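R.M. (postdoc): so does anyone remember the format we settled on? I'll just put the structure tokens first.
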């Protein structure tokens, strides 16, 4: 399918690996020029080089922490007038409700709620002036089905979801859509970290921990960054202009709900 976005320009955050990289590659395959951001310069430039070689698009890189004001300023200076924004940041650490203090919640909100809101506020006005834009926020299946040990993530991402619910409907009339993609478990470093925690707590091997988690997913497997990126590219396409303020699960059927 022709996505109809060839030649447009996208900012993809946390794009050096995992789901962010999957989104960056899918957009590049659709002919979109990229500004890729991540904290680690070496991994970021390595991923960007492969994308340039594979798809022949322009790729700029900004190694910075998007959760800080300084990092966002550097990224926005390079991004300029982008047409597409993909918000993404690593999730907070797991734990129990008794583990977290105010500082832990502030850090989670900064990374997974306030940083994406700041980028939306910075970039969406220009999209509205030009009459076209796409914003995709990578959140989590925990927005629909809270995960007890991920209380920090549950809280911050639910806050972003509420913000998007109202804001998306205020900007849609100017040709700008804002939607959320809610990943379940995917074959990324985050999955390895979570499975390692299960392995250590339960005294089982990492492979056993993965098999145990796969058994809870109707699809029987973890998702891939490639299929996640394809869903992101569709939401950023010319074909998705009537999808506004939605929370789309990519979880292999793990969340058992009618709506």
């Amino acid at each position: 399918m022709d996505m109809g976005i060839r030649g447009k320009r996208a900012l993809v955050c946390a794009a050096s690996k995992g789901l962010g990289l999957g989104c960056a590659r899918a957009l590049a395959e659709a002919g979109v020029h990229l500004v890729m951001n991540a904290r680690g310069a070496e991994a970021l430039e390595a991923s960007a080089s492969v994308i340039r070689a594979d798809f022949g698009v322009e790729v700029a890189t900004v190694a910075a922490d998007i959760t800080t004001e300084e990092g966002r300023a550097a990224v926005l200076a390079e991004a300029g007038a982008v047409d597409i924004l993909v918000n993404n940041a690593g999730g907070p650490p797991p734990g129990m409700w008794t583990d977290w203090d105010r500082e832990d919640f502030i850090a989670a909100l900064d990374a997974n709620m306030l940083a994406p809101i700041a980028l939306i506020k910075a970039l969406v006005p220009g999209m509205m002036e030009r009459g076209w834009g796409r914003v995709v926020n990578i959140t989590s299946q925990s927005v629909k089905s809270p995960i007890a040990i991920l209380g920090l993530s549950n809280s911050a991402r639910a806050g972003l979801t509420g913000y998007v619910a109202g804001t998306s409907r205020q900007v849609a009339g100017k040709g700008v859509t804002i939607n959320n993609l809610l990943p379940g478990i995917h074959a990324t470093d985050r999955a390895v970290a979570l499975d390692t925690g299960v392995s250590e707590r339960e005294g089982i091997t990492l492979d056993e921990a993965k098999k145990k988690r796969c058994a809870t997913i109707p699809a029987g497997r973890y998702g891939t960054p490639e299929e996640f990126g394809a869903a992101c590219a569709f939401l950023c396409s010319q074909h998705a202009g009537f999808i506004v303020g939605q929370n789309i699960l990519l979880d292999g059927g793990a969340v058992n709900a009618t709506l």
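R.M.: ...and that's the designed sequence above, right after the tokens. Also worth knowing: The chain has a mean pLDDT of 96. The first helix runs from residue 18 to 29.
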